[in-house]
């Protein structure tokens, strides 16, 4: 009976020691859930910011291309204006040379006297006026030609100055846009780094949760086993108590019979009855010192650190296909952990051709992140992501020019 009592007490102590760590570690698992939720929200926010930055990059690159086109057009117009100025200056010089030659001939040949004689030989005043007007018209025509050429030269010179000023402003705007594009590139790189770090943190938390869940399951199994043993111990104790009661009752009946037979020996018989009570308290004290051995906690494996993406700045011709996270066979997350619902501007590439994490420009698609891979994406094949299946069908399969932006 002492052995059964000892087993019950030991089981009770073991149950208490197992139950307390469960409550203690439940709070730790709750903290892991909170951290995971916070990091997931932060990752969603970063994905949104990354998509906005990607849109800004596309807009800036488009503006840069437009300004470069305007610069080329203005350079062509400016070159044409310079050519026209040179031609006009040549015409002015030729006209001045012609006038000078005529003046020289007039002085040498005495043409002035002939003009005066022509006027004096007029039959009447009307003919005189007509001849004088004709001579004036001829002289004014020469002056007008020279003046018009000079005005044309002045207009062309002003146009040249305006075009040069416009050209300088366009180049300044182009430099400003390129500087803004560089800042956006740096911002995107930082956002991608934060996203990769959050992915690593989520992987660590997930592994820690798995370890903690396994530990809780083991402790729960131990607790259930302890409860079963405790129940069995209680049943054994009840059976022992029942048996002891029956033995005590039989002894009491025997004592009563003895008392009737020997009335003079009632006190010793009573003492004999009292001595039959079991001594249980001495064994109980010795069992409380038993403590269950603590189980070693498994270490959380450390995930591999993500590699830093690099870019090459090269341009290549590739075959392009299309896919969408809206298709049932695809997930919402890429190989880099990018949420395609938040950041749809992503392409899948062969990492041996285009490194993961690179920013690429695909003709007809725009600037995107090389953030995914695929079993069929090998060599010079690129898979462009779209938000809907209809967009994928419209894209189809086509040849594209891919530039890895450095």
Automatic annotation (TrEMBL):
Residues 1-26 form the signal peptide. Residues 307-319 have a biased composition (Polar residues). One of its GO terms (molecular function) is hydrolase activity, hydrolyzing O-glycosyl compounds. One of its GO terms (biological process) is peptidoglycan turnover. Residues 261-291 have a biased composition (Low complexity). Residues 213-319 are annotated as: Disordered. The keyword Signal applies. Residues 346-405 form the 3D domain. Gene3D superfamilies: 6.10.250.3150. Residues 85-156 form the Peptidoglycan hydrolase PcsB coiled-coil domain. The keyword Acetylation does not apply. InterPro entries: 3D_dom (IPR010611), PcsB_CC (IPR057309), Resuscitation_pf_RpfB (IPR051933), RlpA-like_sf (IPR036908). Residues 71-98 form a coiled coil. Residues 213-233, 240-252 have a biased composition (Basic and acidic residues). GO terms for cellular component: outer membrane. Keywords: Coiled coil, Signal. SUPFAM superfamilies: Barwin-like endoglucanases. PANTHER family: CELL WALL-BINDING PROTEIN YOCH (PTHR39160), RESUSCITATION-PROMOTING FACTOR RPFB (PTHR39160:SF4). This is Uncharacterized protein. It comes from Enterococcus devriesei.
